[in-house]
Amino acid sequence: MPATDTNIQSHRTPGSDGSRGSDGTPSTTRPKSADDIADLYADVADSLHRWRWADRLVTGRYRERQFGAASGCVLDVACGTGTNFPYLPVDVDLVGIDISPEMLANAREALDRLPLEGSLRRMDAQSLAFPADSFDTVVSALSTCTFPDPIEALQEMERVCKPDGRILLLEHGRSEVGPLARFQDWRAEAHYEKRGCRWDQEPVALVEQAGLPVVDEWTALLGTVTGIETAPR
Ligand SMILES: C[S@@+](CC[C@H](N)C(=O)[O-])C[C@H]1O[C@@H](n2cnc3c(N)ncnc32)[C@H](O)[C@@H]1O
Which CATH number characterizes residue 142's domain? Predict the structure, then answer.
């Protein structure tokens, strides 16, 4: 099934005053819009897909740990090239969304190779075109760092998740290790400009700022990778 466009709108971007927000969102003096982010991923979609073996090597075990128990109707928010798909149980009913048609084209290829039922749609994570309480499990990986407004996106995940459902996140952010964290701080602005990725964000603080309960959390790779389970309030 081809990816279809749904609900692509412009949204406010935090940090436009250059300050670090109390929500753990780092400062960015030139915040990018959803369109900017889509353009950026259009350029890298095919190479990310070609290099997926490298991603698996680094993050595969963490994706397995975080998403291996997803169940029922599963929404993968900002599914990118479908990197999470091989780690989902084969009996889930999957919907993947992303802002980038090029990333979704590669996700389609990834999905077609797997014994997994699913559909893909172009959609803005900050304005999900699903009714409330639609999904048993909402998963998302390495995504909040690129959303223009990650708080809005997290609250959308909460809205579409069933009241007894689970929201499983695998995020990256500022290291727990001083020298590495300071390097990230130093290069944060340049990294965001080039990649559209806030690599000095604090994922747990973001979830708390969105008002969601942190049910479980763990970190890996010197604290740069964080697994978070949250749930609708
Ligand atoms: C770093 S990639 C992660 C992709 C995938 N989840 C993974 O783990 O490999 C970030 C993804 O977020 C998507 N994205 C960024 N902003 C978005 C938005 N507002 N709505 C939907 N997708 C968005 C990008 O197009 C990109 O595919």
Answer: 3.40.50.150
